[in-house]
Amino acid sequence: MSSKNRTLYLIIFVLLFCIFWHVLSEFSVFLPGPISVLWDLVWLFRNGVIWHILVSAERVFLSLELSFVFGVSLGLLSAKIGFLDLLFHTTIIPLIEAVPPLCWIDICVFIVGMGEVTVLFVLSVVLIQFFLVNTIEGIKNIDRNLVEMARTFTLDKTRILRHVELYMMAPYLWAAIRVAYGVSWKVLVLAEMFGASEGIGYLMNQAYSTLSVLRVISLSALLVLLFSLGDLLILRRVERRFRKWQR
Predict the structure, then answer these.
(1) Helix, strand, or coil here: 247?
(2) Tens digits of per-residue pLDDT, 114-135?
(3) Considering only the top CATH level, what class is 48-246?
(4) Which tens digits make up the pLDDT trace of 192-208?
(5) Which of 62, 72, 88, 200 has the highest CB neighbour count under 10 A?
(6) In sequence order, which residues have a C-beta less than 8 Å from that of residue 88 and are 6 or more positions away?
(7) How far apart are CA 126 and CA 21, in angstroms?
């Protein structure tokens, strides 16, 4: 499907969704219509929401970088040290997967209080599992014959890692990035609602406290917009560079 057709289908879908939303709001006392949400978004932009957007976006991408670095590094170490591989599969990964983000938020708030450290820690802990698991699985599926062939040309382990092993692991790493990016915005809102005094989640908590359905929906629409812009302007560019590197 061409990009023009995708854009056309997207516009048609958005228009149909807005029409359905407007009709539904006419029969509901509590559900605001799309026009009301649009005007509320205008009010938010006129009253400093851009600062909260920048804070939230910085937290998302910084936590992605941290979880990528630590997750991939630990995954590579597990391939070299059998004890770590056993530890990750029997203890660390099940622990991260089993404990809900809200519990991590409570623990951090009790220990270090509300703030940047709490949000970044919770995001990184939740996201690191995707990079750790995918790195371990990627290593297991590396063609060892190609690695052995590479060793006949060079004994530089760094070059082999970069040009052979990471090359074959690239699909696993990119899949982890995509999944982690989608999850990061969901966890961010929860972390900011209970562990921060700035950001979209903080504004969401204020709206919830005042029982403002309009503001909650407006901020939800803003999150969808931010997610889409991040995917379009950043992730797709990273993906293109990823593809070039693979070639």
Answers:
(1) coil
(2) 778 888 888 888 898 888 888 8
(3) mainly alpha
(4) 888 778 889 899 999 88
(5) 200
(6) 74, 78, 132, 136
(7) 33
